[in-house]
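Hello forum,

I keep getting stuck at the same step: I have a sequence, I want structure tokens, and every attempt I make locally crashes halfway through. Rather than fight my setup again tonight, could one of you with a working pipeline run this one for me? It's a single chain of 282 residues.
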Amino acid sequence: MAIRSSSFFQGQNVKIPPFLLLGLGGILMAVYFTVNLRADKMAHLAMSLVFWCAALSSLWDKRSHLKLGTNIFSLGIGASLVVGILVYSLRPPTGVFLGFAPFVSALGIVLLASGIQAIGQYNPELLMLLCLGIPKLLLKFLPDISPLTAQFSTFLLWYSGFSVQLDNNHILLPGGGVNVVPACSGLNLITYMLGVTVIFLLMFPLNISTKILAPIVAMALGFIINGIRVALLALLSTTRNAALFDYWHSNDGALFFVMLTVLLFGLFCWWIVGRAQCSSLK
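Reply #2:
Ran it on my machine without issues. Output:
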């Protein structure tokens, strides 16, 4: 351990080997994935992988430019955050923990790696992981859009030729129907897609019009795909096949629609970036 400065708060005097930091990061990721599996949060786990992969990819691209070396003060805070995550993971998981554990874990490792004084070099990656947890807080303050979702799903069924009626938030079909509650409104998916948009905006240089268009497309995809899922559930309710309905209503069924939404937005991003590159070559 080389002493580089006598300053307790600013001096970089402790350098942890990178392989130890990578090993600790791997342990925290494994614990986080295990907690999600234990809580049967497959859709959230899949969305978390998107944020993890984006942050790791961004970090890998600038690995040779990172300034490593921390101090005792930062070491203590970073170790406390890491230990806190490991201890809290032993408890029954909550939505807030699942949302913010990646950010807190990454912040702890950053402090162990580079200290408070060099935390700015990790801002994009920390922001990406922070956006994974923000939806858990936003949902408490956003308006209920379940009536709008019920109307949209009813329109899809009517346009497809089914005899359907809407009674408040109840979508009624001959032989069945569903009640669109706030948890099924798609607001959760919409807020997550806004987080995915932040990843896109951070990773690629884009013009102002694209920065405005991207979140609009992300929110629209989240709302439309969820509306299709609600319409499908309404149809499945008429089949009297409880097992099939329960599957598509469960987290496993929701996972398909989450990944479909992310895939479609990914195709949109690929098209936008490709068009920008073609424009720059002209």
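The longest strand covers residues 170-173. If your local run keeps crashing, start a new thread with the error log.
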